[in-house]
Amino acid sequence: MQCNMNQNKTEEPPKKRTWIARAALESALAENVRGSDPQCEGLIEIIVERVVPASPDGANWAVKGVKYGKAEREVCRAAISKVVEEGQREFEVSDWP
């Protein structure tokens, strides 16, 4: 009798990410954070950097820095965390120098 443990596996394959230019990603992240709360409207920029994914289905980018400007840091940190988490599931950066 042969037992195959993989028959009951219900995992879905990881969703393919959309390729996006780094500048477009940085702009989109910043716009989403600015729009999330009036206290984040002063946010200037979110800078992303290339990273080696920790797992085969991991993102190839992470936040390197944030220029808050006059934005409320504590409020914006939470918004940035949420927006980046969503972005890392959706986007892969295509144009590293």
Unreliable runs, pLDDT <50, ≥5 residues?
none
* Mean pLDDT score: 88
How many helices? The count is 2
Shape: elongated
Distance between the termini: 55 Å
How many domains? 1
Structural class: alpha+beta
- What is Rg? 17 Å
Helical proportion, percent range: 25-40%
Say how many strands there are: 4
State the major sheet.
2 strands, parallel
What would you note in describing this structure?
This protein has about 100 residues and is of the alpha+beta class. It has one domain. Helices cover about 35% and strands about 20% of the residues. It has two helices and four strands. Helix 1 (about 20-35) packs across helix 2. The mean pLDDT is about 90.
Secondary structure blueprint with pairings:
Elements: E1 18-20, H1 22-36, E2 45-50, E3 61-67, H2 73-90, E4 91-93
Parallel strand pairs: 1-4
Antiparallel strand pairs: 2-3
Helix pairs in contact: 1-2
Question: Which features does this protein show?
Answer:
97 residues; single chain; alpha+beta; two-stranded antiparallel sheet; two-stranded parallel sheet; elongated
Task: Explain briefly what this protein structure is.
The protein has helices at residues 22-36, 73-90, and strands spanning 18-20, 45-50, 61-67, 91-93. With 97 residues, it is of the alpha+beta class.
